[in-house]
Specification:
The chain is an alpha+beta fold. The chain has 5 helices and 13 strands. The protein has one domain: Porin (Beta Barrel). It has helices at 3-12, 36-48, 132-139, 145-152, 191-202; strands at residues 15-18, 21-24, 55-63, 73-82, 86-95, 98-108, 157-161, 176-183, 223-227, 229-234, 244-254, 257-266, 271-283. A hairpin with a 2-residue loop joins β5 (86-95) and β6.
Length: 284
């Protein structure tokens, strides 16, 4: 396991303060505030540590205030219900005594049943594509100084866009994109950990899908954007240290908000998770 992945796992490992309270460290990844995927993943980790014999199958979260990336986050878990098949948890993330995020998550025991799924689109494999760090280096000569650190940050999540966008001079295109992603390192065989890491990774690029029809990117410095909510459904087990294809679309943008949704597939085409998010988008 490389040092970047080890640091991510350490970052997402929470300090247990008591039976239902946890504390997680923040990281500066070059964004203005705490990365939303960090809070989402740490909240799911906190909730998961209060459940036994059940796996997370869905979560619904709201981002309430910008998080301070220099300050730890405290997570308070409310054990709302433990039923025969399902368990429900509510998590509130707190900084400076105020909630910055809340989430409801549902867990259930495994069982068989009816199955069907949407099909994965045919796209080039990850071996044929450049990752975001390599694409960022190609654009660094013209990138504003304040964005250098974000693009040069060594991501623990490797991202390889199927159809890369010009970071500074994008052309309007349909609101659809596909990105291969993985954690670049061997991980423990722990389904709960892989769900936490997918929650962390799922916030990358999703809101940006709503910018594609408008010829805009976050790196231009022409917009102000922030995640407002985030929902996930875990359909089947998966390994995030192997490639997953994140297929995203944005069916709507209006009233200063953009809506995006996505599906995640294994290389074999198995649908393992779905995601939806609305975010604030304002032109500067």
């Amino acid at each position: 396991m490389n040092n970047i992945v080890q640091d991510l796992l350490k970052h997402l490992t929470l300090e247990r303060l008591d039976e239902n309270r946890f504390r997680g460290e923040s990281r500066d990844i070059g964004s203005p505030h705490v990365y939303g995927g960090q809070v989402l993943a740490q909240a799911l980790s906190a909730a998961s540590q209060t459940v036994t014999g059940r796996d997370a199958h869905s979560l619904h979260a709201y981002f309430l205030r910008p998080g301070d990336k220099q300050t730890p986050v405290v997570y308070e878990v409310d054990r709302i219900r433990d039923g025969n098949s399902y368990a429900t948890r509510r998590v509130v993330a707190i900084q400076y005594g105020k909630p910055i995020f809340n989430m409801s998550a549902s867990f259930k025991i495994g069982e068989g049943g009816l199955e069907h799924q949407t099909q994965m689109p045919e796209v080039p494999g990850p071996e044929e594509l450049l990752n975001m760090t390599e694409l960022g280096k190609e654009a660094l000569a013209d990138i504003p100084d304040k964005l250098d650190r974000f693009l040069q940050w060594q991501r623990p999540v490797e991202l390889r866009p199927v159809q890369p966008t010009d970071l500074l001079h994008p052309e309007p295109r349909p609101p659809f994109q596909a990105i291969w992603m993985r954690i670049d390192g061997d991980l423990p065989d722990d389904p709960a950990l892989h769900r936490v890491l997918l929650a962390y990774s799922s916030d990358y690029s999703l809101l940006g899908t709503a910018l594609l029809p408008h010829g805009l990117t976050f790196t231009q410095g022409k917009i102000r954007a922030a995640s407002l909510d985030h929902a996930m459904w875990f359909h089947r087990d998966f390994c995030i240290d192997d490639w997953l294809l994140y297929v995203m679309e944005s069916p709507n943008a209006a009233h200063g908000r953009g809506f995006s949704r996505g599906n995640l597939f294994t290389r074999a085409g198995t649908l393992v998770a779905s995601v939806a998010q609305e975010g604030m988008i304002r032109k500067l």
